[in-house]
Give the backbone structure.
Amino acid sequence: MTAHSEYIGSSTTAVLAQILDQGFARVRLKHSAAQRLATLYRAATDFFALEPGAKLRYGVPNRSTGYRPHAYAHAGDPDRPDLNDSFLYWPQRPKTPPNSDEITGFLAAAEAYRRIAAEITRVLLTELRDRYDYQHELPFENASVLQINNFGRTTDEELLQQPHEDAVFLTVIWASAKGLEAVFEDRGEQLPLEFPEDEVIVMPGSVMTAMTGGEIPPLFHLARNHGITGRKSIMYFMSPDAHTRIEPFLMNEYNKEKDIRELILNNPQSYFGLAEDFVTN
């Protein structure tokens, strides 16, 4: 069983054991946590229903916080952008979006759910530290961001997001409708992932792969178009704070030349075309 948590249901199998077994983990939320998720979903639905010009008032020029327009980011190919707009919420005050006093309810709901995703992260980190007998602290809240995607436009494209991995340490994700699929290239399989109202999925990224000496591969995934306008996905992109050198859980041939800190700082731009100072800005 997973470690005791204020937010995780007792029926959840240990998070790390699931990841090692199937490449990702399902986490059942307790009722109070599921209510926070539902509150954020409703607040996000109201926010994304605003006119495009109104939403732009809550973004910044380099798109590192607050609102980000449709098709701004991509999954490795700028010619095939993600077919959604989004909102990024960081808990640090310097990254508060402009005009935030007008959307306090939305931001409060984002913070309430972010705490749940951060607690799920701590549970997995405890399991990883135990597995690898890791003695270092691994703070993460300054380099981690909550992002809400809105798939609000109709399109004939087969995929709303191309196959990719998130290039972070892990992602805690929930989606309001079908579309997310795990991609297992080694066995030629794409597995649709659906979400009850009280269940999220934890997906490892390549920063975790580097820290575990290649033992835990990143989960590649895509977003398929099922013609569901208004679908939302809520993601907590977690990576360790990058203010100092980060020691891996396990050092071996796979990662002896890798600098974990540099991966955290450089991956957003290298993989997705985001701002050079996305993590530190």
